[in-house]
Amino acid sequence: MVLMATTSTSDIGKLVSDRLGRFGEIALLVGAIVLLGGIFTATSPVFFSIGNFVNIIRQTSIVIVLGLGMTYVIISAEIDVSIGGVMALSAVSAGLVINAVGPFAGAVVGLLVGLGFGLANGLVTIRFGIPSFIVTIGTLGIARGAAFIVSQQRPIIVRNAAFETAFGGTVGPVPVLILWALGLAIVAGIALWRTRFGRHVYATGDSEQASRYSGINTDRVKIMTLALAGLAAGIAGLLFIGRLGAARADMASGIELAVIAAVIIGGTSLFGGRGSIVGTILGALLISVIDNGLTLLGFGSSWQQLIRGVVIIAAVALRDRDEEGSFL
Amino acid sequence: MSEVIELEHISKQFGQVQALEDVSFGIEENEVLALVGDNGAGKSTLIKIISGVLQQTSGTIYIRGEEAEIGDYNDAEARGIETVYQDLAIAPNRTVAQNIFLGNEILESGPLGKLLRFVDDDQMEREASELLSRLELNLDPGSAVKNFSGGEQQSVAIARALQSDPDIVILDEPTSALSLDATQRVLDLIKRLNEQNVTIIFISHNLEAVFNVADRAAILASGRLVGVEDLTDVTEDELVGMMMGRARQSAD
């Protein structure tokens, strides 16, 4: 009994802050969005309107869909910078097949291109022991180059009623794009939070060694997270065609950085083991609110980039400090 | 006493390096056997062979008299062998319960019944809580492991090894990174485990700890077995001599 009392030196305050930590992070993000929303409402007459909010969410939807896969990848302590190129190649391939064969075949091809690149990223990373950062820089170039070759450097105009209804239409006042993002986020969030695979993704990123010693196939987990990121890029490619009615090889250029920023601002640790889908959605929304508000106030994309950079550094600086005060 | 594990002529070669050479001894039911030796003596290689991480180049392992091929972690677990590794193999951001059930999560039926099953955190916390109280460890199963001290984290790693109810637990340097106080608590935990009929193989450089908890010691030097001694029959100095590769100058 004496031993029972002495074995735990854990401090209740630490436990409480740990329990509140995750909710605190989410609350902080919601607070930041509300605060910025308040500032933009006060300074721009157009900001606070349903039309503008729908616009913000619609603009964010593709980043959110890409962010779902990226959240899995980063929690498993890997990274994928190829998603922009893969998304472009998926969209261009899907566009060509939709026009030549039909919407269903086009959608399948778009998804398979994304999934195939994701799987290839995972297999090369694991089988050859090359860091995923390097592998995906390579596949970013390969996919983007292939997109230019396949499209012959021309925009692929897609005019297909069924495809537009499925990916580009509206349900009442709500764009289908938002419903896709919401539905996929719910599936991805539940899978990450409640399934055995989701738990293995967290465990693999938290301690690959502990996971391996516990019988978890960490190689398979990492291959699957990278495959999911590729699949998400394929889905994002289809949503992009649905939204704009066209695919171009140079589309979504640099989107990987916006997606990684959303995931990191949303509380996912670049070192793996921590993060959430809700955080990623809020991180993406925060960036969109900043971009949208600055645009309405007449600030151009240069200011948006600058402020986005400050927000990323501030978010990580505020969060990823351990008890000793050193940055993790 | 019967032997739960018998090692017969175990050798292991890594390229040109002979890590283990013709090692034979038995581990008796419900004993605490210390595996001692200097750095590079082959202790870690030997336990990795018993726990399925490595395979021997030659020789045979018998478990309860039956020849056993231990190809991987799952083979070892199926034969009732669990290992706690030296380097605190825990996931720091996961809770105590999630660490205890790592790779072996309890599932419940989801909205699609058995087609989609969800991790049952409540049940895992309940079972972890029972296991921790059986081990007299006062740790909150719902708290992240990083909140605890080194000794407590080691206790979580040991508790995890016990989750599958093994007969044999291998502890690789469980006290090497711990303070004196934490070391004593881990040693007390090892004694309690042994009282619960768990056979323990305990690797340590800390001879005081070895004499504190172990019944016998198997001494390795340069990949060879120097001897297996009852610790009531041998002094610390004699054990050190054997670790240096000298056979014991026995009077008997």
Task: Summarize the structure in words.
- Chain B: Keywords: ATP-binding, Nucleotide-binding.
- Chain B: GO terms for molecular function: ATP binding; ATP hydrolysis activity.
- Chain B: This is ATP-binding cassette domain-containing protein.
- Chain B: Residues 5-247 form the ABC transporter domain.
- The complex is a heterodimer of chains A (328) and B (252).
- With 328 residues, chain A is an all-alpha fold.
- Chain A has a domain at 60-253.
- Chain A has helices at 2-7, 12-43, 50-75, 83-100, 103-127, 132-151, 161-168, 176-194, 196-206, 208-213, 218-244, 255-265, 277-296, 301-319, and strands spanning 156-157, 170-171, 174-175, 246-247.
- Chain A has a two-stranded antiparallel sheet. A two-stranded antiparallel ribbon of chain A has the order 2-3.
- Chain A is globular, with a radius of gyration of 21 Å.
- The longest helix of chain B is centred in the last third of the chain and has 16 residues, at 180-195.
- Chain B starts with a strand and ends in a 9-residue tail after the last helix.
- Chain B has a domain at 3-91 and 166-243: 3-Layer(aba) Sandwich (Rossmann fold).
- In chain B, helix 6 links the parallel strand 9 (168-172) and strand 10 (199-203).
